[in-house]
Amino acid sequence: MTVQAQQQRPIRLASVVGVVLVAALAAIYMVSQTLRNSIGVIAPNLAAEIGLSAGQLGLLSSVFFIAFASAQVPLGVALDRFGPKLCMLACTAIAVTGAGLFAAAATPAGLIFARVLIGLGCSCYLMAPLAFYARRFPPERFATLAGIQLGIGTIGTMVATAPLAFSTAAIGWRMTFLLMAGGMLVTGALVAFAVPSDRGGAELARHERLRENLAGTLAALRTPSVARLFLMHLAGYSGFVLIVGLWGGPYLTHHYGYGLKERGDLLLLAAGGQALGVVLYGPMERWLGSHKIPVLVGSGSTAALLLLLAAFGTLPLGALVVWLLALGVLSAYSPVLIGHGKTLFPPALIGRGMTLLNIGTMAGVFLSQTVTGIIIDLFPAAPDGAYPLSAYRLVFALQSAWITLALVPYFWTDDPLHRK
Known about the structure:
By secondary structure, this protein is an all-alpha fold. It has a single domain (8-419), classed as Up-down Bundle (Growth Hormone, Chain: A), CATH 1.20.1250.20. Helix content is 81%, strand content 0%. It has helices at residues 3-8, 16-36, 39-50, 54-70, 72-82, 84-104, 108-121, 127-136, 142-159, 162-194, 202-221, 226-256, 260-281, 284-288, 292-312, 317-330, 334-344, 350-377, 389-410, 416-419.
């Protein structure tokens, strides 16, 4: 048996080798999710120590997502040319460097540059494992493996709330980022030792990929309903990340008076709700015989929750707890939206089509966070640096409107599952 044949032999999920490599791939994705959502809880600390304006805070959080999105097309080429393992190891070096520079940064420009590196470094930890699973595990295991990857990733989002707040209070945000850099380095080493090299169709990629990738991307863009689905990707995920990943921390401090620990605990509710929601949404497309129904319900409910907070401004603690839990659960429809996108593309275009939609997801967060930071800066801040409640209410209302505008054309998207 040749080395290439050995590399392509299917791996059984129940085997020791299968368990260890899936654990390694899920662990590095979990750390990347912590880095992705790490600004929200510590935003007031960064603003106070580095002197960041609201616009700079929005840009600081959002540049991760535009860097992530910009890497997706070249990442698709690299995955085919060099294989998932080499891509993840290269990205690990970039992410570790970015986290280290973030910990050492003393200026807004230094923080933003480091955050760009973190975004580039974290850009492959979902697509590369999914590509590996598709190549090396039996096809009937792909959905299970994708669910494991996404599910464990939500633990990383939870770590970016109360645990991150605890660590920041104990050792400071700079040492905390050094610890996260160490975590990324350790999980990168796990990938290096546990995940076999797999270059897949490297020979074909070497001769045809650049030309064929462009043609395939254009073909994916012309797929019926893809523009409507792209709009939903732009709006959907950004609603949750707007709260947990950016403005939730400042909002809870400025208008409830909560400190680092309290805002970490409260945002943990939303992150925990998201983890629960991923599990609940998973089988809905099969139960309902439709991708669109769960997405329409989830996006509509998310828009309604944001509009509710915009209308009232603040809520009693009990209602706020329920609101945060509901936001996490109801906005967790991304797996169904991803599944919907997969059904629109023929097999030859699935990789490029899914990458295209993933660009929409990340670009949407970039736009949402950048624009809302600019909007908040239009309002005069209080002497203590607090942003006015009217600024937050406008931001929540605009995000609600954005999701609503996206779900209207999504209603007319083709749903192949519904036709069966």
